[in-house]
Amino acid sequence: MEYTYITSSPEETISLGESIGRILKGGDIIAYRGDLGAGKTTITRGISTGMGLGDEVTSPTFALVNEYRNSDSKLSLIHFDMYRITSPEDLETTGFFDYMEEGSVLAVEWSENISDELPKESIIITIKRLDDTVRSISIQAADGDERFENIGT
């Protein structure tokens, strides 16, 4: 199932992310695709808010992984940047497989670099920059997963 939404501002992208965050469940893996500056961290900020984790989300570019947890939320969000990951050994050092086992929601920027390691039921979110503020955001979920239908702003 694939659903496409158009957002016209960072605020609308965050709002769409909030809608996504409210319907995620433990074990979901979001695999982002999109160029530098497309809005991957922006939509993750919304997802975190929708999950009840707040909006203090930053790009994991230098840390490789950021964890967002709080005692009031039953789910945690683990945000990865796989830009510099070039081998299965590199991936192992991020703790990716350990996080998969704990039942958190994983959000993976530059998922193309680890596509062979992603489960087939991963949620693929492709963000295309149409101009300075407008984004086309496509959400591809497993067959039968209709959670992302009609969630757009």
Description:
This protein has 153 residues and is an alpha/beta fold. Helices cover 24% and strands 25% of the residues. Strands 1-7-6-2-5-4-3 form a seven-stranded mixed sheet. A hairpin with a 5-residue loop joins β6 and β7. The mean pLDDT is 89.
Keywords:
single chain, about 150 residues, alpha/beta, 7-stranded mixed sheet, 7 strands, about 25% strand
Outline the fold blueprint.
Blueprint: E1 2-7, H1 10-23, E2 29-33, H2 40-50, E3 65-68, E4 77-81, H3 88-93, H4 96-101, E5 105-109, E6 123-129, E7 135-140
Parallel strand pairs: 2-5, 2-6, 4-5
Antiparallel strand pairs: 1-7, 3-4, 6-7
Helix pairs in contact: 1-2
Mean pLDDT: 89
Number of helices: 4
Q: Topology as H/E string?
A: EHEHEEHHEEE
Low-confidence residue ranges: none
For the record, give the distance between the C-alpha atoms at the N and C termini, rounded to a whole number.
19 Å
What is the general shape?
A: globular
Helix content: 10-25%
The chain-level structural class is alpha/beta
Measured by DSSP, the beta-strand proportion falls in: 15-25%
